[in-house]
Inverse folding.
DNA sequence: AGTGCGACCCGAACGC
DNA sequence: TGCGTTCGGGTCGCAC
């Protein structure tokens, strides 16, 4: 499941492969992927080039000059660069063909990802982008900001860390890891958090995300037909998907619970519920 | 406004 | 073996 580190890896990989190549044609195989008008998508892309790829939270932003193509990979979205002659895989839903006869193909087994073509000036009006909070790797993420956003809420901390309007880009895996590193129980209510907790959250989210980006993410498998990009961060995970395994700090068995409908892993000894 | 939860989707894992 | 069922993941939108 792509989180901020995976999306950053995709961005860097694709920048090396598709920038400034002229788009020859597009093929929208699964129209529901596309939130904007399909006919407009088919009409506008040919002749344009991707001149840059940016990222806001987990959103990829392909810069087409006068338009942006927004792309959210959700859980299993992947981009492949393939020769246009290659057979189309049943999970490839949108294909953008360049005039050097290579394709940028969007692949998504769950069909959960979304794309949206917007005029450049409409970016600030686009809800999904506009409401993104501060990224863990940004210096604007301070303990004061976190305390201000979190301490009024009565939701469990796990739920709060998944709220993209506060910290942008944390998903289920890193939320568990950040809580473990901050020694905060996932069920702790936001209103019970201290400024010191917020400093720990800030430091650990920054450290974990920076490290994950260096490793190329957790779950990245392959982004081209030939060139494999494999995430190495999974070997550093302390709690996520480690139910019944011993905590690396104290040896206590890692527990799994549901918080806000999401599976949540934590060490019951290292992460005490605050009083 | 803040919070809770179902819908979206389908492959994998599980139960019988 | 081969069915059927359940689960999970991020985000949106609706209900309370």
């Amino acid at each position: 499941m792509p989180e901020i580190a995976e999306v950053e890896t995709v961005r860097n990989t694709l920048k090396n492969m598709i920038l400034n190549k002229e788009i020859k044609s597009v093929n929208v195989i699964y129209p529901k992927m596309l939130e904007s008008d399909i006919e407009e998508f088919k009409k506008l892309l040919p002749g344009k080039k991707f001149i840059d790829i940016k990222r806001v939270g987990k959103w990829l932003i392909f810069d087409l000059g006068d338009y942006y193509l927004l792309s959210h990979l959700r859980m299993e979205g992947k981009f492949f660069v393939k020769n246009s002659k290659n057979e189309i895989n049943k999970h490839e839903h949108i294909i953008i063909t360049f005039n050097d006869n290579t394709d940028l193909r969007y692949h998504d087994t769950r069909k959960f990802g979304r794309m949206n073509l917007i005029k450049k000036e409409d970016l600030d009006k686009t809800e999904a982008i506009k409401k993104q909070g501060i990224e863990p790797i940004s210096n604007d993420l301070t303990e004061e900001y976190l305390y201000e956003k979190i301490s009024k809420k009565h939701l469990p901390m796990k739920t709060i860390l998944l709220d993209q309007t506060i910290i942008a880009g944390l998903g289920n895996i890193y939320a568990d890891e950040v809580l473990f590193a901050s020694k905060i129980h996932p069920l702790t209510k936001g209103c019970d958090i201290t400024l010191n907790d917020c400093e720990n959250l800030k430091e650990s989210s920054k450290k974990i995300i920076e490290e994950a980006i260096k490793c190329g993410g957790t779950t990245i498998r392959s982004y081209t037909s030939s060139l494999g990009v494999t995430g190495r961060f999974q070997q550093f995970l302390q709690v996520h998907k480690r139910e019944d395994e011993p905590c690396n700090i104290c040896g206590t068995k890692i527990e799994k619970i549901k918080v806000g409908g999401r599976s949540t892993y934590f060490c019951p000894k290292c992460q005490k519920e605050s009083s």
Notes: The longest strand of chain A covers residues 92-98. Residues 32, 74-76, 108-112, 152-155, 159, 260-261 of chain A lie near DNA strand B (CB under 10 Å from a C1').
